[in-house]
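[recover] target loaded
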């Protein structure tokens, strides 16, 4: 039988941990996706050395389980920082850094790796003739990328970015392993006292489902508006290049 009393008492506490989950997502996503765009541009431009390093980074991040990246970030990063500071005659209390910061660092790297492939394919799908047309009306190549290529690439990439976003919402549950008390960690902590694990994970499931549903709907609205915007501006761009 489901322990309704436990659900009534524990649900508000689990719900109170949702902002921590959202913090992990909304800090990791913008930083990770900006890095992903930069990596995509470097790989598409085939910049010597940098493109090879980017390729190794993406391959490594896509082949290693996220929980391992979290452990490396949480346990190794403080030692690296402390060793470096000691080498230059400085000292700092690295234990004062919250566990969420290390989790965010790991999620940023993951998002950068996965989103770079999404952005790379989306950029390649944009007709190269549009860059030439933009340059013919006085735009430099970087400006053409920012004003012409990237808006179209990001719009076409939105369905895949939606998947990455929702995947990270669910993936934040792994932050429990490094001591971040988000939805999953709070649910497990409350369940430990009364062994009500079914009820605890049921609550977590409901919260993740609601969050995923909400963000899926938001992305659909953004996709629709972005598509309409590009359709409205396309004739003007054609007129300028005619």
């Amino acid at each position: 039988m489901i322990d309704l009393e436990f659900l009534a008492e524990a649900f508000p506490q689990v719900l109170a941990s949702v902002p921590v989950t959202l913090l992990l997502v909304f800090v990791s996503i913008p930083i990770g996706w900006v890095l992903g765009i930069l990596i995509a541009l470097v790989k598409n431009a085939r910049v010597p050395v940098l493109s090879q390093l980017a390729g190794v980074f993406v391959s490594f991040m896509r082949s290693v389980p996220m929980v391992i990246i979290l452990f490396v970030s949480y346990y190794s990063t403080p030692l690296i920082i402390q060793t470096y500071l000691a080498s230059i005659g400085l000292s700092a209390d690295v234990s004062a850094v919250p566990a969420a910061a290390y989790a965010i660092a790991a999620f940023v790297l993951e998002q950068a790796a996965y989103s770079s492939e999404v952005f790379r394919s989306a950029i390649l799908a944009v007709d190269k003739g549009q860059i030439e047309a933009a340059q013919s009306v006085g735009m430099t190549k970087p400006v053409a990328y920012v004003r012409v290529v990237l808006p179209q690439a990001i719009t076409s990439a939105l369905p895949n970015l939606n998947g990455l976003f929702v995947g990270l919402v669910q993936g934040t549950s792994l932050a429990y392993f490094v001591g971040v008390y988000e939805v999953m960690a709070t649910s497990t902590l409350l369940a430990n006292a009364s062994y009500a694990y079914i009820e605890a994970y049921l609550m977590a499931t409901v919260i993740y489902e609601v969050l995923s549903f909400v963000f899926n709907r938001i992305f659909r609205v953004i996709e629709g508006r972005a598509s309409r915007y590009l359709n409205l501006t396309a004739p003007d761009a054609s007129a300028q290049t005619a």
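[recover] notes: The two ends are 71 Å apart (CA to CA).
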